[in-house]
Amino acid sequence: MSKASLKELCFCVAIILLAGCAENKTSTVSSMEEEALIQARLDLVEHDIKGAGIVNEDVLRVMREVPRHEFVPPEYLGQAYEDHPLPIGYGQTISQPYIVAWMTELLELQPGEKVLEIGTGSGYQAAILAELGYVDVYSIEIVPELAESASKRLEELGYTEVHVKQGDGYYGWAEFAPFDAIIVTAAPDHLPAPLAEQLTEDGRLVIPIGPPGFYQSMWKFLNEAGELKAYNLGGVAFVPFTGSGVEQHEPESTSTP
After folding, report:
1. Largest CA distance in the chain
2. Hey, where are the domains in the chain?
3. What predicted TM-score, i.e. pTM, was given to this entire model?
4. Catalytic residue among 2, 5, 31, 95
5. Annotated catalytic, 31?
6. CATH of region 3-248
């Protein structure tokens, strides 16, 4: 048997064992299982993130360090380091790793900046932002159960500085505004005006926009001298943005976000 085949076999065995532990609600992870998960994470970053064009070294670093397997349900543990989204309950998902890395890179975060995430979900994207080590992270989740579990998970994993709030992300978080960057991890059918208003003068906003149940477009908005400039970065697929805010407000036009 080749070294490559042996390595793959060890990884598969370790994942099966770890999944079995998860099903039995046992948190014990052997050194072999931990090594397999770390190697799977490193391979994912090398092939599907760096290999797909992500170049920001800080983003690559945190993608290698944050344990995505801690943010997925036990039944999906064996898929934690595959490059696709996974269900986390309540009609929500943990985003595809490449998309997480790409959106983080698009934010162009700098030391000392303040970033707002709309859609905490499992807490994975918030952990990625916090792991950078030089930005203040605020995150809003509309589903009470997810907000509670994500907050607890982030605290247990050491991300104690992340501020998590349960509420309708359409309205942002005015108490702590303005934000240097805003990232939205669910797709409304238009740009929420309160979010744009909560950007700093040189703020960046990254958001998927489009109709629910279909593909959307990823947009990056730059606030330049008080003028919001929009850049369409191509097609994506996200769960729909929910809440009374998006339901009560109509798109400003049919041709632009």
Report:
1. 63
2. 3-248
3. 0.87
4. 95
5. no
6. 3.40.50.150
